[in-house]
Amino acid sequence: MIRDITIGQYYPVQSPIHRLDPRVKIVCTLIFLVSLFVQNSVLGYALAFVFLACMIHVSKVPAKFIGKGLKPIVILLLFTVAMNLFLTRGGAVLFHWGIITITETGLRTSVFMAVRLVLLVAGSSLMTFTTTPNGLTDGLEKLLHPLNRIHVPVHEISMMMSIALRFIPILLEETDKIMKAQIARGADFESGNIIQRAKAMIPILVPLFVSAFRRANDLAMAMEARCYHGGEGRTKMKPLKYHYQDRLAYAITLGYLIAIVVIGRFVPFKLWIF
Fold it and tell me: What pTM, to 2 d.p., does this model score?
């Protein structure tokens, strides 16, 4: 399960998506995520799926990597589906037994929520797979730069997010090593009830926190030794500039958003029913 977490990982390959400006990928990802909430039809979700599948194909990131990132959310996905399936009322009753009632509206809502969650995680994963942590930092700092006028520490916020993303794969690898070392010494993390499993995790959490604090201290000392004092007056080795392909990406994403809004507004309700 630890190895299935793909947040913060970068897949190095040459593709049109990788070469886009980080600002474009951040904005287009936000537009895609917003589009999942502005419509509620089968055709709309089908269009979102096709759009995301095309972007994954163009990015040259293997689909299995995107799928691997969905494994850690299986429990959340099942919980979301169950809550919407059994607690949503409305429409014709499809199944009733005791206190369990499944309605047409509950079934439709649970399916839509599941699809929405899967597309949301897959779209976010695609952005991190195709953008380096430094690129995300520069793009986010550039997008939030106007907030400097109201004294928001944009550079510091971007730096913290970049460091967090950079350290996620490192900490996951460290956790995997600690678990293997504990298992080799006879530790058992699978058997027992929830309380026993939680207690079994203590030998992992203690050295993991110690390692995280040690790495944070080493990073702080390295930044101080290099006279790091924030982003004021700093220049970029590779300044961000928009090119033709960036404007084209904006146009394609905007066209997709318009299509989604039109579908959600004008497609007859009857087409929403399974």
Answer: 0.76
